[in-house]
Write a structure and sequence with these properties.
This protein is of the alpha+beta class. It is built from 21 helices and eleven strands. 51% of the residues lie in helices and 10% in strands. It binds adenosine-5'-triphosphate and magnesium ion.
């Protein structure tokens, strides 16, 4: 028996739709979830579209929370899953290119028309399974074609972010792009610069976290969207580094790979990271990760000139593995050498526990201060090189380094 809290989000959405239907309303699955299920994929979430007004939704579900205030989107919690219930609507003009100025509650046909791509404009009656297709989305799904609904140009004028959504869906779902849709994007790609950095960053984060990121990078460049995002002239061709990264690599490493593959690396790494941070509204963690990954990559190029301690410290860095994989794309011989060295270095441990810590030094007559940290790091270097092996040896070395007399 399934307990309430364990029910799937799909069951929760079906239950909600049933409640609406029993009250006499139309309640269909809408958009991405219909698309994904037809493709045999598991949707991220199940959205419901209905002819019930937000007021009527609230009467049925008194704890419903209004999310898209003027858009008639209500959030209802069922079996612990938040489900969006949106009233069928048609969108008015988009003076800010993002949100319609006004929405009018309407029928399912108009609601399908306001969506971006035909594959995203489908409805399904969860009770009967019947698909309601007002935009030719089923045929496009079967043909694996991404096509804007109606006049492609108008769809992008309404919301230029849809150009990046087109990249994401084409790449992630492996779809061909309808020529008219592609032509409309090519004609408008520069306008992406007018879209908020937050929305652009979110789309980039989503598409580059996906294994299809190389196709995404190629489409972004083919459509010159990258020039609008970064205000530069990128020229990635082979996507060597992006291609080399595994599916589940961390996003900051993906950013580093994409930046290097785009081959517009002029100025310092710090400038590049700063530019990307503002272009994509990166978080602090993402910015620091991208910087660290580029830094580890740059230092790895000097591997042969590092001593054992330097090599071990580098190899123990969180970003070393993606950096090593990226370096292999351009310097295979060097990485072969690194790999041979690593076999030996691992035998004595890349990051062994420190023989002594700050407390040990303070207890041994050292003064607190910046010198203490330097002594500790030098002692750890000696430990990594295998020059000292015990706590006493470490304490002796620390005293010599700090110019203190030998322990009695
Ligand atoms: P995902 O799997 O990424 O969630 P999705 O298609 O469900 O894909 P959402 O952003 O969750 O995408 O949006 C749900 C639906 O709302 C879409 O399928 C589409 O019909 C519509 N939609 C979302 N954003 C836009 C937009 N910018 N312009 C037009 N329609 C949109
Ligand atoms: Mg969705």
């Amino acid at each position: 028996m399934t307990r309430r809290g364990n029910r799937s989000p799909r069951v929760a959405a079906v239950d909600l739709a049933k409640t609406l239907a029993e009250a006499g309303f139309t309640a269909w699955f809408a958009g991405g979830c219909v698309r994904d299920e037809l493709l045999g994929r598991t949707p991220k979430d199940w959205d419901i579209a209905t002819n019930a007004t937000p007021e009527q939704v609230r009467q049925l579900f008194p704890r419903a929370r209004s999310v898209g205030e003027s858009f008639g989107v209500m959030l209802v919690l069922r079996h612990n899953h938040p489900i969006e219930i949106a009233t069928f609507r048609s969108d008015g003009t988009y003076s800010d290119g993002r949100r319609p100025d006004a929405v009018t509650f309407a029928g399912p046909q108009e609601d399908a028309q306001r969506r971006d791509f035909t594959i995203n404009g489908l409805f399904q009656d969860p009770h009967t399974g019947q698909i309601h297709d007002f935009v030719g989305g089923v045929a496009d799904l079967e043909a694996r074609c991404l096509r804007a609904i109606g006049e492609a140009h108008d769809r992008f004028v309404e919301d230029d972010l849809r150009m990046l959504r087109a990249v994401r869906f084409a790449a992630a779902l492996d779809l061909a792009v309808d020529p008219k849709t592609e032509a409309a994007i090519l004609a408008r790609s520069g306008n992406l610069a007018g879209v908020s950095r937050e929305r652009i960053g979110d789309e980039i984060r989503r598409m580059f976290s996906h294994a299809s990121r190389v196709r995404a990078a190629a489409l972004i460049q083919a459509w010159s969207l990258d020039n609008a995002i970064f205000a530069d002239q990128g020229a990635g061709e082979l996507w060597l580094r992006l291609n080399s990264l595994g599916a589940d690599v961390d996003f900051p490493a993906v950013l580093a790979a994409w930046a290097l593959d785009r081959a517009v690396f002029q100025g310092s790494a710090e400038e590049l990271v700063g530019q990307w941070r503002s272009a994509l509204l990166l978080t602090n963690a993402e910015t620091n990760g991208m910087r660290a990954c580029l830094d580890v990559l740059a230092r790895s190029q000097d591997w042969p000139s590092l001593d054992t301690a330097g090599q071990k410290r580098l190899a123990a860095n969180d970003w070393f593995e993606p950096a090593r994989v990226m370096l292999r794309c351009v310097k295979a011989d060097l990485v072969n050498e690194i790999d041979r060295d690593l076999i030996v270095l691992r035998q004595s441990g890349l990051a062994p526990e420190r023989l002594i810590r700050g407390d040990d030094l303070l207890a041994n007559g050292h003064m607190a201060g910046p010198d203490l940290g330097r002594v500790l790091e030098s002692v750890y270097d000696a430990q990594l090189r295998g020059e000292i092996e015990s706590k006493n040896e470490a304490l002796d070395l620390a005293r010599r380094l700090a110019g203190l007399s030998e322990a009695p």
